[in-house]
Structure formats: C-alpha cells, structure tokens
Write a structure and sequence with these properties.
Blueprint (H helix, E strand, L loop, with lengths): L13 E5 L4 H15 L8 E5 L15 E4 L8 H8 L4 E3 H8 L4 E6 L4 H14 L5 E8 L4 E4 L14 E6 L11 E6 L13 H14 L3 E5 L3 H13 L7 E5 L7 E4 L4 E4 L2 E5 L7 H16 L4 H4 L14 E10 L12 E9 L4 H14 L6 E6 L4 H6 L1 H9 L5 E5 L15 H8 L4 E3 L23 H13 L4 E7 L5 H4 L5
Parallel strand pairs: 1-2, 1-3, 3-4, 5-8, 5-9, 6-8, 9-10, 10-11, 11-12, 16-20, 17-18, 17-20, 18-19
Antiparallel strand pairs: 6-7, 12-13, 13-14, 15-16
C-alpha cells in the first residue's frame, strides 16, 4: 500500500520541511499555502522550514507532527536526529507530492534533460486551454510567480482535487518511480546521477521503461535512440496500444510530431501544421513545446489551435532566463586611466544547465543568438557535484573544447552540495586540460579583500559566493565588448547572477 494513502493532511497541524530551499520542496510548500488560502486546511496550519546551510532555520519545537525531507538531507542531519528522538513521522518529498496530487490525473514529465522547461510549457498550455491544472515544477514560472499550485477541488467530491496535475518526475533519486502517471512524457535518457544507479545506463533505461509502461498514455522524444527503440518495440509487441503512445522529434518526419528547428515548421502525422512561435529563446524549447502539444492532443485538443497559446509564455527562472537586457560595460579606450568614450550594452542570462549534453545544447543556442562570428559572449560555468564532474570529466572537456574563440569561458570552483571534494577533481585542472586561450579558471584567491567570504559553509561552498567572485567577473567584463553573458550551473552561481539582475 502506498504510504501516502495512510496520511490525511487534516490530521496534522505542523509540517516541517527539511531542505526547504530546494526547488522541489518550494513547490510543495507553495501547494500547501495554496490549500490554506482556499480553505482546504485550517488557517492555523503551520509550515516551518530548515535549509541545509543552517542560516535561516525556523526553531524546532514539539508541535511538529509530520516532516517532509528532500533527498539532500542526510540521516545525521540535526533535524533528522531530533525527529528520530521524538518519534516524529518523516516522509520523502515524493510521497508528499503524490499526496498533494491525489485524486487528479498525473501528467508526469521526466527525462535526463528538459523536464523543467517541458513541465512549465505544459502547465502554461493546459492553463490557457482552460483546464486549470495543479502543478509542481522545478523552476518558478515567470507568468505565475510560483512553481507549485494546488489542483482545484472537485465540486462533486467531499475532498481531494480533480482534473489534472502536471509534475516533474525526478529521475535523479528514482522518485519518478513512485508516481502513478496518466500521461508519462520522457524527453531524453542519458547516463547521469550514477551514484543512484549502480547498474549504469542499463539500469537507468530499465527504470524509464518501467515508468513508461505504467502510464496509460506515453509521449517520447525519439531523437533519443533508446526512446525510439522503445516506441517501435512496444507497437510491435502491443499493436493495441496504437493511439496510446506518441512520439516527437527534430531529426526526421518519422515521428507523430516533427519540428524543423531551422524554420520552426510543425508536421503532425506528416501533415503541415504551420509554424511554432515561442516568446522564449533556445531551439531546445521548440522541441520541448512539441511534448506539451502532444499532451494537449491526448486530452482532446487540436495541435493547430493549441500551438498559438505559447506566445505569451515567458519561461521559467534559470532556464535561458534573460535577467538584464541593458547591462552597461565600458569600452577598452584607456580603461586603466579611466578614460572611456562609450559603454556597451550587454544582455545577461541565467541558466541551470549542468550536464555535458545540456552545455552543448546551450552552446548551440548561444552561437545561434550571436549575429556574427566576431560577436563576443562570456560563459561562466560552475560545475555541480565533484562526483558528476569526475564521472563526466572527458565529456565536459570535449564540449568546452568546442567553444569558439569569440565565446570566453570562466570555470568556477565545483559546487559541492551534499557531497565532498575529490582530490584531483577541480576546475583549475579541467581548464588546463581543455587548454584553450578562451577557457580560464577563475581563481577566488585573486580577490584578496574577500577572505571572510571565501570561508566555506557546512556544505563546503562559499559563504558568500557573490562577494567573493563578482569583483573578479566585473574585472573581466570591463573593456571587452561582450554582447551576452551567461551564468550557468545548478549550484549557487545564481547568487552571482542576481547581482546583475535589472
């Protein structure tokens, strides 16, 4: 029996979230707050939080009667020890997500890459189509000011939501295996998070196959060879599932929905469906939108009509997010003497990419955004997790070797998060191995005035990364006529990017 089936939220008065600053946890908190505002939970229902750096914790108290923890929270976490001592029930965030979506039809979007953008696009599209879905997305939707919302309560039922609930299926910790998808979408399948998959890629593929098999409707991107084979094999083995599985791609017209990324032309089941226009950048988002259109098709809407509803979707935070369109930097006319005749306008973006394939996709988009091969851009990347950096070292080196001379790269120190440093695995060594003049390691020791900021927090990361590194980045921006700057990574690099926000 599913653990969450034994839980009724109205039985609790105080829920504490451990690892509350994680984006997935923030979605759960937003949904609970939504339920409080709708009157589904008492106004005195209490939510308290604890993050992982122990800077902004609410105090522990005896009134806590349920705890939700993220995967990042370890067994020896002080809060976990407190809960154990006081016999307080602890559940994983995926169990709470299932509880909060109970009664609604789950539209679960998973995959190694693209699931946040696809989830956000799908949420927006279904909202515009009048379905008012609940959602839990791994990024704040800029048009909705949140990354979580409760599904509406059915007027014909005494309790529980109705309709549809769009959620990300997180493969990193296998929690997507706990979902019960009505529609399952898989955007890509690659090796990643190998610390949770001792069987490597084969185990990852087996988990995705099981995930898809459990769904009533299946939507897959057949740019990926594994997903292409899955779609072909399942229809051979189960011809009765025709109409239950749909494919999309950008390689050839063999998919149910094909998009030509060069001219944004759509073809549904080989028929011309017009052009797909998005208000957000990135060719990969055109492909992600195709998955959302197939979800709408499954739910009975016409793709030719639904595709126009993306025009007022402005993306999610940290997914090719334009955070400043008019940042000014001085030219190189005697900068050292303070004599500058002109300033240069720079667009600044913030992006979550942290896997080699995501870096490659982002690079392709950056090159397409630059009007000429002489236009300059700056790409500032913070590797995420020493283990991931070690596992994909050769792939990272390969992709950064592809950066052209007009795109400079600054590699920051690795974001440690819930792991530990690994001897010999560091950004300085990676820059040396890449061995390109336009790819450099940004040494925090250059900022001699930020000794306090360079101290590590309990996770081994800078206590104040912006104070430590922003002056060094400013120094490199000055005098270079960059058209665009990209802050990239899944760690705390966004805290630097925030200092450049409009």
């Amino acid at each position: 029996m599913n653990l969450t089936q034994t839980i009724n939220l109205t039985d609790f008065k105080h829920i504490r979230f451990l690892g509350a600053e994680g984006i997935g946890m923030r979605a759960l908190i937003a949904i609970l707050e939504d339920k409080i505002s709708q009157g589904e939970l008492n106004s005195d229902f209490k939510i308290s939080k604890s993050d992982l750096s122990y800077k902004t914790n609410d105090p522990l108290d005896a009134s806590i009667d349920l705890v939700v923890r993220s995967t990042a929270v370890r067994a020896d976490d002080p809060d976990m020890l407190f809960m154990q001592k006081h016999n307080i029930r602890v559940i994983h965030r995926s169990e709470m997500l299932n509880l909060l979506s109970e009664g609604a039809k789950q539209i679960v979007i998973s995959g190694t890459h693209g699931k946040t953008s696809t989830s956000a696009l799908t949420t927006h599209l279904l909202t515009k189509l009048g379905l008012e879905p609940g959602f839990a997305v791994g990024g704040v939707l800029k048009d909705y000011k949140a990354n979580g919302k409760a599904a509406p309560k059915s007027p014909s039922l005494n309790d529980g939501p109705s309709g549809y609930f769009v959620m990300e299926g997180d493969e990193s910790d296998k929690s997507f295996m706990r979902t019960t998808p009505y529609i399952a979408v898989v955007t890509d399948v690659e090796a990643d998070h190998l610390e949770n998959y001792p069987g490597g890629l084969a185990e990852i593929q087996a988990c995705f196959k099981d995930f898809l098999d459990r769904a009533e409707y299946k939507i897959v991107c057949i740019n990926n060879p594994f997903l292409k084979a899955y779609a072909e094999n399942i229809l051979k083995e189960r011809p009765d599932l025709k109409g239950k599985i749909f494919s999309y791609n950008s390689i050839d017209e063999s998919a149910d929905l094909f998009i030509n990324l060069e001219n944004s032309s759509l073809y549904f089941q080989s028929l011309d469906s017009g052009h797909l226009d998005l208000a957000i950048s990135g060719k990969f988002n055109l492909l992600n939108a195709c998955a959302s259109l197939l979800v709408a098709h499954v739910l009975g809407f016409k793709i030719t009509e639904a595709k126009s509803l993306f025009k007022d979707f402005h993306g999610t935070q940290r997914r090719m997010e334009l955070i400043n369109s008019d940042y000014r930097s001085v030219g190189d006319n005697n900068v050292e003497l303070g004599v500058c005749e002109q300033s240069f306008k720079i667009e600044i973006y913030d992006d979550y990419a942290h896997h080699p394939s995501e870096i490659k996709a982002l690079l392709d988009s950056v090159k397409a955004m630059l009007k000429t091969s002489t236009d300059k851009a700056l790409f500032i990347y913070q590797p995420h997790h020493p283990e991931r950096t070690q596992q994909f070292w050769a792939d990272f080196v390969k992709v950064f070797k592809e950066f052209p001379e007009n795109i400079d790269v600054l590699l920051l120190d690795i974001y440690v998060a819930r792991s530990q440093h690994i001897e010999g695995v560091n950004s300085k060594k990676m820059a040396e191995e890449i061995a390109l003049n336009n790819v450099k390691y940004l040494d925090p020791n250059e900022n001699l005035s930020a000794s306090e900021a360079k101290e590590a927090d309990v996770q081994g990361n800078f206590k104040d990364i912006a104070m430590t590194l922003k002056p060094l980045i400013d120094r490199r921006i000055q005098g270079r006529e960059y058209k665009k700057i990209f802050f990239v990574g899944a760690g705390n690099i966004s805290k630097i990017a925030e200092k450049y926000r409009e």
